[in-house]
Amino acid sequence: MPTPNSNNSHTQSKLDPEKYARLKAELDAPYRGLRKFLYVAFGASGFIGAFISFTRIIAGQNINSAFPNFALQVGVMALMIWLFRLES
User: Fold this and answer.
1) For the segment 4-17, what is each residue's pLDDT rounded down to a tens digit?
2) 49 and 73 in contact (C-beta within 8 Å)?
3) Domain definitions of the chain by residue range
4) Alpha carbons 83 and 3: distance in angstroms, whole number
């Protein structure tokens, strides 16, 4: 009857060291790549929204609603940058 340790070492010897390291990293932090992609996507969305709101503020169009929207978009960008750095 094989012991669990002998089976694990047998499986480990069949894997490439690079593939084993990648799987171990994924086990330590699952879906890291997906989370980083979402942080970048939401940060880019916040940037576009902030840019549009900023141009409305400069143009003087509907400043009462454009300024809170601008502040919200800047907050979204700051949050996504913080989360991305926290992930790295």
Assistant:
1) 555 555 555 677 88
2) yes
3) 1-29, 31-88
4) 43
